């Protein structure tokens, strides 16, 4: 089993920045792709960004391209989401997810492809 714990959420003004972290523990050497998802009240969950085990392949939701950056440090079993130029529409609960098998990049966006999930961290962007 793998446990994922997110941190770094909070309240920030529009235009500000936050850095989310997700630390994996347990059988973390079995993790392949990792992703950040978000869900706002009344909206569907969506994949904000995802990254391969090597870090060479990434995926970004169109609305966050150029503002968010996903990265990972396998030595620390941690994945990060740097969020800049935040907008009120970025307000949501953010969840970290990990796959336990190889995941084709074409499926990074799909939550059903991930096996482990964190409890989430709340991000609120005020206007």
Topology:
Blueprint: E1 2-7, E2 10-13, E3 18-26, E4 34-39, E5 46-51, E6 58-60, E7 68-73, E8 78-83, E9 92-98, E10 116-117, E11 121-126
Parallel strand pairs: 2-11
Antiparallel strand pairs: 1-3, 3-8, 4-5, 4-9, 5-6, 7-8, 9-10, 9-11
Overview of the molecule:
With 127 residues, the protein is mostly beta strands. 0% of the residues lie in helices and 48% in strands. It is built from no helices and eleven strands. The strands form two sheets. Strands 2, 4, 5, 6, 9, 10 and 11 form a seven-stranded mixed sheet that branches. Strand 7 and strand 8 (78-83) form a beta hairpin. It is globular, with a radius of gyration of 13 Å.
Key words describing this protein structure:
single chain; about 130 residues; mainly beta; 7-stranded mixed beta sheet; 4-stranded antiparallel beta sheet; about 0% helix; globular
**Rg, alpha carbons:** 13 Å
Relative strand content: over 45%
In which range does the helix fraction lie?
Answer: under 10%
Biggest sheet record: 7 strands, mixed
Global geometry: globular
Return residue spans where pLDDT drops below 50 for at least 5 consecutive residues: none
Order of helices and strands: EEEEEEEEEEE
Instruction: Let me know the number of strands.
Output: 11
Mean pLDDT: 95
Alpha-carbon distance between the termini? 40 Å
Alpha plus pi helix count: 0
The computed structural class is mainly beta
């Amino acid at each position: 089993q793998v446990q994922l714990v997110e941190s770094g959420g909070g309240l920030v003004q529009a235009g500000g920045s936050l850095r989310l972290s997700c630390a994996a523990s347990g059988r973390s050497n079995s993790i392949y792709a990792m992703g950040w998802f978000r869900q706002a009240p009344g909206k569907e969950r969506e994949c904000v960004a995802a990254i391969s085990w090597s870090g060479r392949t990434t995926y970004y939701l169109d609305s966050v391209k150029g503002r968010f950056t996903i990265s990972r440090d396998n030595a620390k079993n941690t994945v990060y989401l740097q969020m800049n130029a935040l907008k009120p529409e970025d307000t949501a609960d953010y969840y970290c997810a990990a796959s336990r098998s190889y995941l084709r990049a074409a499926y990074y966006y799909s939550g059903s492809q991930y096996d482990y999930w964190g409890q989430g961290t709340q991000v609120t962007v005020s206007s």
